[in-house]
Amino acid sequence: MDRLRFGICGLGFAGSVLMAPAMKRHPSAEIVAACDPNAETRAAFGRDYGIATYDSLLPMLDNTDLDAVYIASPHQYHCEQVVLAAERGKHIIVEKPLTLSEDDAQRMVDAVERHKVQIVVGTSRSHDPVVKTMRDIVRSGELGRLAMINAWNYTDYLYRPRRPEELDTSKGGGILFSQLPHQLDVIKTIANAPIVSVRAGSGKLDPQRPTEGHCAAFVTLSNGVFATLAYSGYDHFDSDELQFWIAESGREKRPNHGGARKLLVELTPAEEASFKTQRLGYGGPVARNYAATEANRKQPHFGIVIATCERGDLRPCPDGVLIYGDDGPRTVPAHVGRGAYGQGDTIDELYDALVGTQPTLRDAAFGRNTVLACLAVLQSSKTGREVPVLP
Ligand SMILES: NC(=O)c1ccc[n+]([C@@H]2O[C@H](COP(=O)([O-])OP(=O)(O)OC[C@H]3O[C@@H](n4cnc5c(N)ncnc54)[C@H](O)[C@@H]3O)[C@@H](O)[C@H]2O)c1
Known about the structure:
- This protein has 2 domains: 4-125 and 339-372, NAD(P)-binding Rossmann-like Domain (Rossmann fold), CATH 3.40.50.720; 134-338, Dihydrodipicolinate Reductase, domain 2, CATH 3.30.360.
- 36% of the residues lie in helices and 22% in strands.
- The chain has helices at residues 13-25, 39-49, 57-63, 78-87, 102-114, 129-140, 175-178, 180-191, 259-263, 269-280, 285-293, 343-354, 364-383; strands spanning 4-9, 29-35, 52-54, 68-71, 91-94, 119-121, 146-154, 195-203, 214-221, 226-232, 304-309, 312-317, 320-325, 328-333, 387-388.
- Nicotinamide-adenine-dinucleotide binds at residues 9-15, 18, 35-38, 41, 56-57, 72-75, 77, 95-96, 123-124, 163, 178, 276, 280-281.
C-alpha cells in the first residue's frame, strides 16, 4: 500500500487548516473526498483540492473509494461517525476527544474491534516529535526510571472564537474535553501507561464564558508514575513565555496578553460562531498565516512538560528535547516523522499500523482511557475525592 486514500469529514479549523495541508504533503496520504454541512466551505475546498465533496459522511462513504476517513467534526458526532466508518470497513483517524461518554467510548472500541479496522485518536499533541523523543529517551533507560511528569499550560483558549456548544460543559465544551486530552495523552505517551486515577479541581472564572477554564489535577498511571497537570485558558499569563516564545504550533509568537479577549467584545453567540469560521476556517487569515510560516516552524509543544527520571529531567524545547542530566543540560534533536509535525505523525501512526510496521498507540482503548480521565476530572472537581479510572 503506497498511499492511504482519505476522506475528510468536517472542514473546520482541524480538518481544513491543520490536517488537510499536512495530508496533501504526506508521502503516504492522498485526499480523495471530503464532507461538511457548510455548502460554502465544501464548495471552496472541493474546488481547490479538485475532489468530490458531500454534505455528510454517509454519501461520502458510499460513493467514493476510500481506505480511511479522518473525522474532524464537532465532538458530539465522533461516535456515530466512527461506528459508520467502521461498519463500512474504513480505517479511521478521529480527532480528540474520542467522544464524551463512557458508553459511547465503549461502542467505538467494540465497533473497530468487530469490523477489524485500525483507528488512531488524534491529532493530539502527544503526536508531536518532542513527545516521541521524550518517550524514546525514557524507554531507552539512559536516565533510569521515570518517576513523575508535570505538565502546565496557560493559554487564551477560552477566548478563541467558539461555537455555542464549545462553551457548554454538558456538550463537551470548555477545557476539560478539548484541552486536557492533549495533556493527558502527552503524559500517557511519555509514561507508556494508562491512567488509573485522578484527583482534580476545576472551575469557571468568567460568567460570560460559563464553562471550565482552569484545572489542576493529580494523575496516577498504572505503572506507578504520577503526574500533575495545570491548565488555565483565561488569556492572562501565557506560558509560551517559558517556552522561548514559540507557540503551540511551533511558530514564533509575539506577546499579546489579553488580545484574544478583546476581539470578542460584544459579539452575540451566533456572531461569534460565524467569526470563528471566518477567522479560523478554510481560507481565513489563520490558515493563510499557517501556510506562509510552515517552512519556519520550530517544534510544536503543549506548554511546559517536565519528565523526571532517576538521573535527569527532560523537557521540550524549540529544536527538540532538553536533557538536564548529572553533567548539566544538553539538547537532542526531535525524532521527526515523514510529514508535518503532529498531523503528519498521526498519519504515520495509521499507515505504519496498516503496513504492519508498528501497532497504533492511540487506539480506541487509549482514547477511551483519556475520555474516562476527563470525566473523572469533572467528577473529582465536584466531590473533592480521588476518582478511579481503571479498576
Ligand atoms: N488536534 C487539534 O489540534 C485540534 C484543533 C482544533 C480542533 N480539534 C478537534 O477537531 C474537532 C473539530 O473542531 P474545530 O475546531 O475544527 O471545529 P470548527 O467549528 O472549526 O469546524 C467544525 C466543522 O465541522 C462541520 N460539521 C458540523 N457538523 C458536522 C457533521 N455532522 N459532519 C461533518 N462535519 C460537520 C462544520 O460545518 C465545520 O466546518 C473537535 O473534535 C476538536 O476537538 C483538534
